[in-house]
Specification:
Helix content: over 70%
Structural class: mainly alpha
Shape: rod-shaped
Strand content: under 5%
Radius of gyration: 46 Å
Order of helices and strands: HHH
Largest sheet: none
Length: 133
């Protein structure tokens, strides 16, 4: 007895569904009005939730695969952007060094222009007097 009771308790939703389905079909066919059931519409009504489930699952996997490929593209673009940023940083550092060198050369030129004496550039060649013997 407890086996039957346990079976009904664990399957109460399914049993309730089947019971209500049988009662509704009996009421439809026992009414005075002729009920015409279009088998095609009835089957589509029964299968549409499963069709929706399969379609939704397929769309989920398709969207997941698309997002993974899109993620890989974005990662590649990020790496390219990082490399370009490093190049721009190096170019900016080089530009700043050249600008600093240009300013120092301008200062030297201004100093040379401010001196009234004639300046001759030369290179001093000499020997250490201690080494001469």
């Amino acid at each position: 007895m407890s086996v039957i009771k346990n079976f009904f308790y664990t399957n109460r939703r399914g049993i309730t569904f089947i019971f209500l389905l049988i009662v509704s079909l009996l009421l439809i066919f026992s009414s005075n009005n002729r009920a015409t059931i279009n088998l095609r519409k009835f089957l589509f009504t029964l299968t549409s939730p499963f069709e929706l489930l399969v379609t939704s699952t397929g769309n989920f996997f398709r969207d997941t695969i698309n997002s993974i490929s899109e993620l890989n593209k974005i990662k590649d673009e990020l790496e390219r952007s990082k490399l370009e940023l490093e190049q721009y940083k190096k170019a900016l550092i080089d530009f700043n060094e050249l600008n600093h060198q240009l300013n120092s050369l301008k200062q030297i030129l201004d100093l040379k222009n401010n001196i009234e004496y004639e300046i001759i550039t030369c290179e001093v060649i000499g020997r250490d007097p201690k080494k001469i013997k």
